[in-house]
């Protein structure tokens, strides 16, 4: 039962993270084409760093709690990078 909840939440979280990645790419593309300035781009992207950090950390912790070691170890480097990026965020 716990496995199903973890994997459904992981699926929903991965969908949200993919959406955020597409949003980041579109915003950076707008910056490259000079549709927006750098300050506006940073303000749009910085507000999504902490929610991305929280979402990925929750999934990683749930995988650890539910004893899915292999998937946890696959997620650990990305979670570590997100924590590093979130700790250096000027938000």
Automatic annotation (TrEMBL):
Keyword rRNA-binding: no
UniProt topology in membrane: Multi-pass membrane protein
GO biological process, alphabetically ordered: vesicle-mediated transport
InterPro entries assigned: Cornichon
UniProt keywords, alphabetically: Membrane, Transmembrane, Transmembrane helix
Primary location recorded for the protein, binned into one broad class: membrane
GO cellular component, one term: membrane
Domain of life: Eukaryota
Tagged with keyword Transmembrane: yes
TM stretches of this protein: 5-26, 53-76
Signal peptide: none
Subcellular localization: Membrane
Similarity comment: family membership: Belongs to the cornichon family.
Protein name, UniProt field: Cornichon family member 4
